Every structure is written in structure tokens, then in C-alpha cells.
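Quick one: C-alpha cells for this chain, please?
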Amino acid sequence: MNVLMMWATCVRVLQQLRNDPRSVGLILVVPAVLLALVYWLYENETLPPGMPRTFDRVGLMMLGIFPFVVMFLITSITMLRERTSGTLERLLTTPIHKGDLLFGYALAFSIMAALQALVATAVAYWVFKISIEGNGGWVVLISVLTAVLGVALGLLCSAFATTEFQAVQFMPVVVIPQILLCGLFVARSEMNTVLQAIANVLPLSYAVDGLQQVAAHADATGTLATDLVVVAAFVVAVLLLASLTLRRRTA
């Protein structure tokens, strides 16, 4: 892998995003807006004294889920446009390697994901007073990892789509099952055997579990460390797989 080639790809993608305010708005603003909607859903909730708010639990998990969904959409459509416009074909006639290209894209969107996580976490903590305690750094890290996971899966799925509509169609196949089985609605331990087995091999489950560890413990735990390693390993594995399936252009 050529670091200079990867960095050049990263800079090019960031320059393209700078000239696309709608995409920048989608990345930076939409997760915070969606978080606000979740807050308002539970705004009038009546709880016994001392009972934690439902929003503290659900909102914390959404800090991982929303970036995952947004970055999957942005990345899959962006890469598809690169291929259908012929840009990817021209780039691959240069000495750049597929891995340099894919990891350059991942780095660029990871930088945007970090900004996205900072904005969403700041809104959750300062505006909606979500109970993060002193674990804001861990929350940001997990949000970034889940966003990068969305980037990696978006890059992989874009190789199998020929139109933007097809890229969006991967949502019900790749994204929604992970949201349903990650533990947001039903704890994984309470699922039936088959669903629990599926949930245990889906990366978003470990990201949500990491956020639950942050909420339950003031200090980092071994389970949190394991969750972070698993999600990071998924990211690297998916990016490597995406580099193998990357096509020069869409027929």
C-alpha cells in the first residue's frame, strides 16, 4: 500500500465534499436532527423519581446507529458515481492500487465521521443532557467506528450496484437487519436461538453493546475493549474485501 497515493485520494474526496454542501449537511447535521426527533418522542415521558430516562438509553445507542446509516448511504452512492462517471476507470489506469483507493476513501469519510460524531455527541450532551458522565470520549470513538463501518459496507455494496437506486436497495439487506438485531428493540440475550446466533455475527451488535457498556460502567471494561476490537476488525476485513471486488466501471 502506498501511503502517498492513499493520502492523495483522501484529499481529493475531501475537496469534492467541500464543494457539495448538501452532502456535508447530510453527514454533519442529519444525525443531530434525528437525535432531536428521538428526544422529542420521549419528551413528555412520566417516570418515577430516580428512574433514568428512556432517552438516555435509546439516544445513546442512536449515536452509533445514525452515523452508521448515513455514512453507508453517502459512501455507496458516492463510489457508484465515481464508477459510472468514468473517474474510477481513469484513476485505475494510473499507478494507484485498488487498496490505496479504497483506504483513501475510507480515510476521507472517517475524517467526516469524526466531525459527525463530535457534533452529534455535543448536541446529545449539551442540548439534550444525555447521561454520558465522563465517557464522552468512548462514545465519540464508538460513533466514529460505526460510521467507518458504514463507510466500509457502503464501499463493498457499491461494487454490486449499477444504479443509485440499486445502491439504496442494499439498505433492507445490509443495514436494517443489523438495526433490528443489534439490541435496540430486544436484548440479544432474550432473542430466540436463531436470531441470537445471527445477531452475534453482525458488527453493529458489538457497537451497540459497547455503548451499553459505556452507559453501565464509569470505567472501560474488558467487554468494551472486545467490542471495539471486533468492530475495528470488521472494518478492516470489509475494506479488504471491497478492494478485491472493486470494478473499474459499471456496465
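The CA atoms of residues 84 and 250 lie 6 Å apart.
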